[in-house]
Design goal:
This protein is 46% helix and 18% strand. It is built from 10 helices and 12 strands. The protein has helices at 23-33, 50-63, 82-102, 119-139, 160-169, 179-186, 192-206, 208-212, 241-250, 264-277, and strands at residues 7-12, 37-41, 66-70, 106-109, 112-113, 145-148, 156-157, 177-178, 214-218, 220-224, 227-232, 255-259. A hairpin with a 2-residue loop joins strand 10 and strand 11. Bound molecules: zinc ion (ZN). Zinc ion is lined by residues 70, 108, 110, 149.
């Protein structure tokens, strides 16, 4: 499980400077830029054919660009209506199937909204649905990792503790750690000591393997009393990315760091350069 590739830097979606807005062109552009990974964004729906996914997967393998994918935003495993929960499960399954054709190893998603329910009730609903999703995928021979993300709004299920608990409880589930969201949600988690305490908590709950195959989102962020308002470029925000990079370096964290800033590849390259210089 341990990755020998170190920490790879890439973008959330196709780089803005890509010649064409296709996954394939995006992968080529990632390689030209000297980045090493890309998260394919299915946030508005899984809109790629199986053939196109397989073709893009071949390019990714050839160019040694590691891929992951982000499932649609329209997911709520705690929706009131059973048909909305079923549709949410389908969107996650669909993302997992297409990502497997892309050669990706994990998918990221926002699991649920609290809908004013008690957090442990929401946890139980999310857990049951993720267990169904994972067992369905395994029956299809799909071994993809399902990564619930730490979310930025207080109305969204997905604190660090909640995401780590699911990861500990269900085989095939691992965390997606969005540091901008952790910051926006709490107003804390923006210093070296706070970043290392997150890393210690991950290691303490899931073991060293979790730090050897981490999945991180990072960007600047604007937030208010209810949490996340919008993502910002690092230059426009007070997010302490240098101390985050130092913490990741000191803990010898391996895996993928996906930049979600509006200055997409510029900020991914900025993080990669600073990380290498530390
Ligand atoms: Zn996300």
């Amino acid at each position: 499980m341990a990755s020998k590739e170190g920490l790879l830097f890439g973008t959330a979606g196709i780089p803005l400077s890509s010649k064409a807005q296709s996954t394939k062109a995006g992968i080529e552009r990632i390689r030209e830029l000297g980045l090493d990974c890309m998260e394919v964004e299915f946030v508005l729906g899984v809109r790629i054919s199986s053939q196109a996914a397989e073709a893009a997967g071949e390019v990714a393998a050839k160019r040694r660009v590691k891929l992951s994918a982000h499932a649609p935003y329209y997911v709520n495993l705690n929706a009131r209506e059973p048909e909305k929960v079923a549709a949410s499960r389908q969107r996650i399954l669909q993302t997992a199937r297409i990502t497997s054709l892309l050669g990706g190893k994990s998918i990221v998603f926002h699991a649920a909204y609290y809908m004013k329910d008690a957090p442990d009730r929401v946890h139980a609903a999310v857990k049951e649905n993720i267990e169904q999703i994972v067992s369905g995928l395994r029956q299809e021979g799909n071994s993809i990792l399902i990564r619930p993300e730490t979310t930025g709004k207080q109305s969204q299920f997905g604190t660090l503790g909640e995401v780590l608990q699911l990861s500990a409880e269900i085989d095939g589930v691992a965390p997606a750690i969005d540091f901008a969201h952790l910051y926006a949600r709490t107003g804390a988690v923006n210093s070296y000591n706070e970043f290392t305490s997150v890393l210690r908590k991950i290691e303490g709950t899931l073991g060293r393997e979790a730090l050897d195959d981490i999945h991180i989102h990072a960007s600047g962020i604007e937030y208010g009393p209810k949490g996340e308002i919008r993502h910002l470029a690092f230059a426009d925000s007070d997010f302490n990315y240098i101390e985050l990079l130092q913490a990741l370096k000191d803990f010898k964290v391996n895996g993928m760091l996906i930049c979600e800033s509006p200055s997409l590849e510029e900020d991914a390259l900025l993080l990669q350069r600073i990380y290498r210089e530390l």
